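Late entry, adenosine-5'-triphosphate complex.
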Amino acid sequence: MQKSVPRTLINLQNVSKNFVSGKVSYHAVRNANLQITEGDMASIRGTSGSGKTTLLCIIGLLESLSGGQYDLCDFPTTQLKEKQLSILRNKNIGWIFQNFNLINDLTVAQNVCAPLRYNKSLSSKAYTALVTDALTEVGMLEKANAFPSQLSGGQQQRVAIARAIINKPDIILADEPTGNLDKENSAKVMSLLQRLNQSGATILVVTHDLDIANMFPIQYQMDDGTLSRLHV
Ligand SMILES: Nc1ncnc2c1ncn2[C@@H]1O[C@H](COP(=O)(O)OP(=O)(O)OP(=O)(O)O)[C@@H](O)[C@H]1O
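Prediction complete; structure with ligand written out below:
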């Protein structure tokens, strides 16, 4: 039987981003080319200000691009309207941030189910099952009714990962996911990401931490807005 070709989920062709402030224009991303296929696990390293977050925000549809072409899951994003972009963003992308971005006055379970709010067709039983599965996956079910302030940083990041995976998105994007964690919790988050990747998740992480970046089978470097692949 013929093996199916993995789908290209992220396809950037000559993507650039200029920030314009008055008469000054700053090229944060210069002609970036990047193809990420289903099941990839990739890191992008780079010094502070090299353009990593800007690039990740373009990929996550949080930032528009100034030039080039970006197809996400075969959708030509530059041709889509804001409403279509927000559906694509919600359905296809799970985000993990350095500072967790949990809402302090919601419980763990309420935070985790936030991405489900657009899915009106879910029964309450299915809703509860998804929250339970996501929290079980990251080992945080017993804290379902706790508030973020009652959790350690490592636990908060695991809750944020549960929120990122609850919709079963095609891609998980993480911006410095271990940036606020000690060595032990960083290792836990990395092994959780590796386990998710082994069960099929496609993961793209930006980090300035070389020890973390080196753990990925696919590695890129950002240098003053220019993206290049490292052959490891
Ligand atoms: N909204 C904005 N307006 C103007 N310039 C911006 C804006 N966002 C980012 N920049 C500039 O673009 C460049 C790249 O920023 P970016 O945040 O992508 O870098 P980074 O590699 O993620 O850095 P860090 O690791 O410090 O977060 C920086 O020089 C930054 O000042």
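Residues 183-198 form the longest helix (16 residues). Will revisit in the morning.
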